[in-house]
Amino acid sequence: MSTSIHVSAGQVAASLALVALAAAISFWRKADLERDIGIATVRSFVQLTAIGFAIELIFEADTIWLVFALLAVMVVFGALTARSRAKRVPDSFWPLLIALAVAAATTLGLVVALGVFEATARYLVPVGGMVIGNAMTASAVALNRLGDEMADSRGKIEATLALGATAQEAASPFVRRALRSGMITLVDSTKTTGLIFFPGTMVGMLLAGADPTDAVRLQLILLYALLGSVAIAGLVATTLAYRNFFTSAEQLREVP
Amino acid sequence: MLFELRDVSLVRGGRRVLDSVSAAIPAGATAIIGPSGAGKSTLLRLLNRLADPDSGTVSYRDRALDQYDPLALRRQVSLVPQLPALLEGTVGSNLAYAARLAGKEPDAERCLGLAGLDPEFAARDVAKLSVGEQQRAMLGRALAQRPEVLLLDEPTSALDHAARDAIEATLAELRRELDISIVLVSHDPEQARRLGDWVVRLEHGLVTKSGPLREVLA
Q1: Could you read off the pLDDT of A117-137 as tens digits, one per residue?
Q2: Do B48 and A160 make contact, defined as CB atoms within 8 angstroms?
């Protein structure tokens, strides 16, 4: 999988024409997103450039501990970002942090143990980034849904508790729906992949001049790894977070 | 005494919902009456530990409630909330669920009969019931646990007069047929007069009167 592509700064600058087009459309149709488009463009440039340098350093140092450190930072930032989408879930940070850490450790551990990838920075950093990013989105969507479901169904949950059901039994229909909503996007996009959507890794490899068979195989590995990671992240996040809605006496907590 | 509350206070959202409430609730039928916002539903929720007071004690059969396992307590002291909240599925599946939680054999026909519903309701989808039918199904579901005490939160507030009369007749019938105590929350003193032997009157979180029906609502 050697890459031969070289991208000049001029080519990147030229692609800003599309950003200008997006901003123009927003201005013309009064979508009021010009400022956000500007922020997104600057942030993506700064963040990707910074991570590019960091990855270069990690590749050069070639030590697994730096890889773990980078992945740990990604997990913490992922949990902080996901928490902002799960405002209706009490104390959602820890469930999210544990969910992302378990999803990353299990998925990367498995692909290395099965001999799919070597345990080196060149594989673990990009694959880890994708795994944690997708796990973050899935767990954020799942907890966002869980917060809405629990708030909208207080009467039903308390009526079930009133029969002597445990918190787990009373919350299970809502936890199930939350987990499902966290996973469904990736499941659907995996179904249509190659038909109406070309995933990023495959596109990147084809652009970089790789053999299409290799590009497809690597993409399949990543898609399957991501399916596993979003399922693990969604399961861990919802399983830990639902408990925060209840007291130890199996009572529904008052919403502040 | 069935229940005894001593100096029970509870604050929610910065408001003192119950303020040093002391009251005794004997076996039989007790009505907790008072205007909206008096703290009636909150008091009822304390009786099967759906909530705990900030201070004071509540006891059931002379034992403090916090000494009971909350799940086992709720299967003996069953609360039917003001608004129907059945689980998705059929009436029968709701009854079976409640019976299983209490470790009892489901007897849908008997429970539906006690709640004033025909046996054919067991197969009905809860989403297709009227509010009155749902309220009866909630009652049937609670009875499937064969509780010792039924806590009823405004069981007829969402119903018209005919449906209200039918539910009241059902409750009176229940008391005749089963050895069961009922604690009923109602904003309507007339309902208390029709159904209660004992009355606790709450206003602004305070007990203003409590005792036998003929004394409180003379």
Answers
A1: 999 998 999 999 999 999 999
A2: no
